[in-house]
Amino acid sequence: MSDTLTKLTYQTFQQGKNYFGLTHKMLSVRLMNIISPSERQTKPIPNEVLLKLQQKLNHLLEVDWEDAERGVYPKSLLFDNPWEDFFRYYPILWLDLPQVWDRIKHKRYQEFSPDIETFGYPSYYVQNFHHQTDGYLSDLSANLYDLQVEILFGGSADPMRRRILALLKETLHAPSLHPRQIRVLDVACGTGRTLKFIRAALPQASLYGTDLSPAYLRKANELLSQIPGELPQLLQANAEELPYLDNYFHAVTSVFLFHELPGAVRQHVIDECFRVTKPGGTLIICDSIQMSDFPEMALIMENFYKTYHEPYYQHYTTDNLVERLENAGFENIDIQVHFMSKYFIARKPG
What we know:
Elements: H1 3-35, H2 47-69, H3 83-105, H4 139-152, H5 157-161, H6 163-171, E1 183-187, H7 193-201, E2 206-211, H8 214-224, E3 233-236, E4 249-255, H9 263-276, E5 277-288, H10 298-307, H11 313-316, H12 321-328, E6 331-338, E7 341-347
Helix pairs in contact: 3-4, 4-8, 9-12
């Protein structure tokens, strides 16, 4: 397939996911307003903001294509989609929605099934983030998560995740470092999609992942075991107490974690990331944009935490993560912004 045809196929693929996400959200909101109406808290987004949002999405997809074209990762990743999960779980997603709507209507934010064990988890974690049934603590939640996030971001979640790959490869280019010596940790690895992408970009590196949820780790193991070669090493662990030696990893990554942490906990997690990163190594954080990045997107950010149960997001949008990184000891901190995601690239002094 020619590059031109491949790019056109990719653009069509992404456009289809975007339209699908928009259609799903429109239909589900209309149905919710009929079956379980609740007080509307959000404000309509002005057309000029929506236009700017579309422009930012187009730029994200162009960068995604360019990185694949120059070999940062295989072009096959551009079309990576869990189709089996989609066809299996999309009907279940609809069947789960009445519970979600009822939870929203009655503002039940810490509701778990009787068989879900919540003892031993931090109180900030025992939440129905995004109003998800059983929060992050059930197999149902783990099975639906990637599908829910793809719908939420209109098919752009994976392109946003993939922005860390070029950054990772740039930090691990030292000639004295053999690819098999590289150790990379993904903190709060969830269902393992970020680790899957890192494996494609760094096929010889030793990969590690931690997460608090045993259900999500089971899902990650299921996903990653399908890839030929060495499996990433997965551990259940609180990011505030990483079970690794000091100065162990050449790079540490974290994707879409920090907006779901209270401020003080963000600092603890950054401190731990600093501890386990080797001198000269790098921490790469991917998370939501903040108010200072695009003030014109403020309404979108405000609607986000009002629409979805994100109890720490509002504080995150004004939090000074650069200062937190510097307090931990990181230096030479760079920032990039792509679409609705922001990237902090922080180096540990050598």
